[in-house]
Fold this protein.
Amino acid sequence: MTSSLLELRVLEGPNLYFPRAAIKLTLDIGGLSIASEETATRFAARIGLRNARPGSPETGFRQRFALRAVARLVRAVAQESGTLRLGVRVRSTSNPHEVVVAFPWRHRTKAEEMGRAVGSVLDAILSADLETAVSAAAERVRAAEAGPAPTTITPTIPVVAVTGTNGKTTTSRMVAHIARTHGLLVGWSNTDGIYVDGEMVEAGDYSGPSGAGRVLAHPQVQLAVTETARGGILLKGIGLARNDVSVVTNVTADHLGLQGIDTVDQLAEVKAVVPRITRRSGWAVLNADDPRVYAMRTVIRARPWVFSRDVDSPGVRDTLSDGGRATTVIDGWVCVLRPNADPDPLVELVEVPMTLAGLSRFNVENTLAAASAALAIKIPRDTVVEGLRTFRPDAEHNPGRMNFFTLPGGPDTLGTSVVMDLAHNEAGLEALMEIMNGVRAPGGRLLLGLGVVGDRTDELIEKLGEIAARDSDVVAIGHKEKYLRGRTIEELETLMRAGAERVGVTGVPAYPTEVAVLAALVGQALPGDVVGLMCHAEREECYDWIAEHGGTPDTNDTLATKVRRAAETEERAPAAP
């Protein structure tokens, strides 16, 4: 007989269901779904679910009954085993025979036993021992040892927690840089590793709870900046009981179809866990231009601080009316707005290297978010300005995110621009193409090295192939063998090529590595062309290849020159007939 308990997951801190440690059960309710109305009614009576109307088997009415019944079952087992009050959350999934139920815990061993006991009752739904199964489950829980308490950390230093689909790594790095400019010893964790005072102390993806814990364990760290990804929230919970300032950059389609998150709205609900645990006296920094992010203001206890590229955004207006703050752009200046006060102009966008002279829409938003967070943790205004002016889009300050290089093209020529970025989803790739367009020389072409990781849906992988072929002049595939994640190279190639074929591009070539596709594209590039690389697996190797072939990182002045040249060319272009 198949067990009704499909998964028992221990969440060690705030999570999608509760602001504290919880047990998450994924349950097969197939037995309850097909049980006769008489059996379902007997079950409801045994667990104290009064006036229940189970409905016919395998109907929508039965499914709604099952959600109520599972929640009541958890409470019944808890009460009969000695726990008088217990919060329970239950959710449906895309599979009508599966539900997720969660409840908070204080003693791990006993809580895990209760999860297994609940599963055992569902196993007995169709048996004659249905009534006694509940009593037996409660007795198992009563007899279990208590076990350890949650390991959730209550911070003793200020914490800035950053989440979102795109921009969270760049924003967290900017905040950390500004704080270091202020003289603070900063620890921060992100998808690359753990950093203390600017030095990586451990490589790896530490965007989950373990990264925050390791940063806070360092005895000399004065400020923690944590990048918080959806996977960590769903699989382990947030490792911290609270944060002082939270930042939500945006929410777009990414990693859908994993861990029960199938829609962008559900993804936004996961991201909202981060501002939900921001302390009441702190600030939740929210993107007012993203409706799902701005809606998070309804679930926070903290004060709202929004950012928007549009000073007339309704979100800016409403937040100021409610006593919050906003950071926006006025006449090309990053400005802070407070209720009933004139704007405070901090710095011109052209003086902030990360915005690429204002060309990068995403990095303008990241700049607004980082400035807001830095001011929210009371870093002096002048220091924030200095930090924004000195944080650059290069391998030192922001590795793997919009890194610009120039490869030599011979005497008196423009050379070839190379742009490296993670660009791991639709929004990220569109932003990369926007940037490449913004620096291409007159007559220059866009050559793109397309690559994906395996844990994306077929639809997203095909869409990336479509965008790449539609928006570039030359496209080639560069595989990321370390990130196949259950897929085959042939499968990924087929999906990317199918997307390209939607816009009439066929025969897209493929190369085994990111370095190989970079070399191939640069080899066919002409002076003034721009080569873009969706780089994830071989960042350092690509940096080395560029250096070995005479490439140099672009300075702020070099980037500004490229942007101005591209803009002047566009202005001189004749109008379409």
Observations:
- Residues 60-80 form the longest helix (21 residues).
- The two ends are 72 Å apart (CA to CA).
- The longest strand covers residues 278-287.
- Residues 454 and 488 are 8 Å apart (CA to CA).
